[in-house]
Amino acid sequence: MPATKPRYHHENLEQILLDAAAQIIATQGVAALSLRALGDRAGVSRSAPYHYFADKDQLLDRLGERGFSLLTQGIIAAQAQHDEPIARGRAGILAYVAFAQAHPQLFRIMFAGILPRRLSLPVDKAGSSSSFSSAAAARAFATLQAGVAALPDSAGLTEADLILRTNALWAAMHGVAVLAIDENLKLVAPETVLDQLLDRLIGPQS
Fold this sequence. Notes:
- The structure is a single chain.
- It is globular and about 55 Å long.
- Helix content is 62%, strand content 4%.
- A hairpin with a 6-residue loop joins strand 1 and strand 2 (129-132).
- The chain has helices at 10-28, 35-42, 56-79, 85-102, 104-111, 135-149, 159-181, 190-201; strands spanning 119-122, 129-132.
- Helix 4 (85-102) packs across helix 5, helix 4 (85-102) runs parallel beside helix 7 and helix 7 runs antiparallel to helix 8 (190-201).
- It is mainly α.
- It has a two-stranded antiparallel sheet with strand order 1-2.
């Protein structure tokens, strides 16, 4: 008797498909991802993914959105373990690099220019806007920005200087993250590199 594929309730199949897509990317890379392969991996019919995603591009958009949500959650959770502003800031930045190491393929999708940036959203109180791939990506940036704004030596910065400082710190942490996931750091752990950078950029942890 042929094996039957498991049935899933409508409300959780989309999440199961996203989980399966993340697994394919983690083990085989983005090139191996297709909606047909996704159905096979999730244990449903090959046509089932088309009820949730029009094509591979839309699937990648959803994965990117999910990645930014997970990144934000990780940063906030790490910050919540500390009361002192510099310790909170450092914890959030370390969480960014930890996320990249835990989800390297997803991290690449989020930042490798794969996702079109269709949304123009404000990034300061004056309403100046920038482009994002999703509202989740904008929230991730806002979370980083809030952490930078809470640092003691950020007090009194203009909006423009705060944006500049956020981008500078982001560039530092992102650079370490990319070097780490591509195994390009030489004889030193990424956390050690980041600690040394942060000692100079935001001050040593008390």
